[in-house]
Write a structure and sequence with these properties.
The chain has about 300 residues and is α/β, with parallel strands linked by helices. It is built from eleven helices and twelve strands. The protein starts with a strand and ends in a 6-residue tail after the last helix. The structure holds adenosine-5'-diphosphate and magnesium ion.
Length: about 300
């Protein structure tokens, strides 16, 4: 596995790699969710590239850019084990050199939900992902279902801008109690960590209501809101039952639907979703009982 920092070194490395090349964009501080994407790319592609870049352009002025968790050495160990061929870890000035002024704006699909609460977020995401696509020239790029609107925005951008690649969206990987894995989970104090299962549980409550016959989208949103309201540490930012491709809110769930939410637990902002496609629920998968970090790093027994 090769670690490169400059765009020049990345280009000379990727040009020598066998194709198809699979790209996994990340912000580092890797967990089993990221590693699942790398393994999937490894299984489907001749070469695997990973980017580790905490992208300043996708953080708002009052967001957690400066305290976003980082551990490049640990990440590299995990990526080596997972079978990555090249890792690009650029400095911000390599991606956004002085005088930088070009951005990609995806319109409607980027406006609601995350886009409404985090103005400019998807402009930053679409811009950096477009640059990653140009830098790696991958044949496939792997994203997580946890960031459902991000996946929809990237799909739209790749189609609209004629990027010649396939976007692969992989199921959400969850902790044993159902909490979606995220680098930001590390911010949670123990009591907050226990409260954070309310996202998964409220999605499960909406799924149960749907299975019991409820088709009214507002009723299903209410089921999630009510469940979240019962957790005093949880502050709901939004709950949504929307079209998974356009993100337009639904009135009735008589077709594909994305059930999603953003919730603050203390100061930590968490998102999660279930998606119903062709009558099949995609709810993600729980990790095996021994935590990933302990399985691969040998830090002792799982508990
Ligand atoms: N629990 C998860 N399961 C599957 N994919 C995930 C998970 N968490 C993050 N990803 C995916 O990993 C990629 C990089 O996300 P990143 O922002 O680095 O991680 P995080 O969401 O933990 O902050 C994105 O495509 C994201 O959707
Ligand atoms: Mg993220």
């Amino acid at each position: 596995m090769k670690l490169v920092h400059t765009l020049t070194d990345l280009r000379s490395t990727t040009s020598a790699l066998p194709r198809p090349l699979g790209l996994v964009p990340t912000m580092g501080f890797l967990h089993e969710g990221h590693i699942t994407l790398v393994r999937r790319a490894r299984a489907e592609c001749a070469s695997v590239g990973v980017s580790i870049f905490v992208n300043p352009a996708q953080f708002g002025p009052n967001e957690d850019l400066s305290r976003y968790p980082r551990d490049l050495d640990r990440d590299l160990g995990l990526l080596e084990l997972a079978g990555a061929d090249v890792v690009w870890a650029p400095e911000p000035a390599e991606v956004y050199p002085p005088g930088y002024q070009t951005y990609v704006t995806v319109e409607e699909v980027a406006l609601p939900l995350e886009g409404a609460v985090r103005p400019g977020h998807f402009r930053g995401v679409a811009t950096v992902v477009a640059k990653l696509f140009n830098a790696f020239t991958p044949q496939r790029a792997y994203f997580g279902q946890k960031d459902a609107q991000q996946a929809a925005v990237i799909r739209r951008m790749a189609l609209d801008l004629n990027f010649p690649l396939e976007i692969v969206v992989c199921p959400t990987v969850r902790e044993r109690d159902g909490l979606a894995m995220s680098s930001r989970n590390t911010y949670l104090a123990p009591e907050e960590r226990r409260a954070a299962i309310v996202l998964y549980r409220s999605l499960s409550a909406a799924q149960a209501a749907f299975r019991a016959g409820e088709r009214g989208a507002e009723e299903l949103r209410s089921a999630m809101r009510n469940y979240l309201a019962a957790e005093p540490r949880a502050q709901t930012e939004y709950v949504s039952v929307a079209d998974p491709d356009t993100l337009a809110e639904l009135e009735r769930v008589d077709r594909d639907a994305l059930f999603s939410m953003a919730v603050r637990i203390g100061q930590t902002r968490l998102i999660d979703n279930f998606v119903l496609r062709d009558g099949v629920w995609e709810t993600g998968s729980l990790i095996p009982s021994i935590p990933f970090s302990q399985r691969t790093l040998g830090e002792g027994e799982g508990g």
